[in-house]
Amino acid sequence: MPINEATGLSGDMGVTEEMMACPLPRVPLIDPDDIPEHLAEELAPLYERGVKRWGKVSRFLRLLGWAPGFVEGWQIMDGKLRVQHRDSDPEYIHMAQLVIIKTAILTECNN
Fold first, then answer.
1. Number of structural domains, the chain?
2. pLDDT digit string (tens) for 27-42?
3. Is 18 helix (H, G, I), strand (E, B) or coil?
4. Which of 13, 14, 27, 48 lies at 20 to 30 Å from 90 by C-alpha?
């Protein structure tokens, strides 16, 4: 069974290089304009906070949207680690972003 060097998987598994470059999550993302009714009351304010902080709702938060408690918890942690430094110490944010980018490069994550 030959292995595709780009994906590290056998061809009969049906995983293409394109799928590996931009994989679709197994759990659907919740779009800010299409929040399910049963989550809207709890999730909409959290999404608004994301837009206020960063200008958009990240893919990660859209994935976590199925569990609004996780979105809120992430935003609390993000507030302590990055948001409070955004204006007072922009260099801190630049370094944090570089760590994220370097990790993505090392793990070959394109998302």
1. 1
2. 899 999 999 999 999 9
3. helix
4. 48
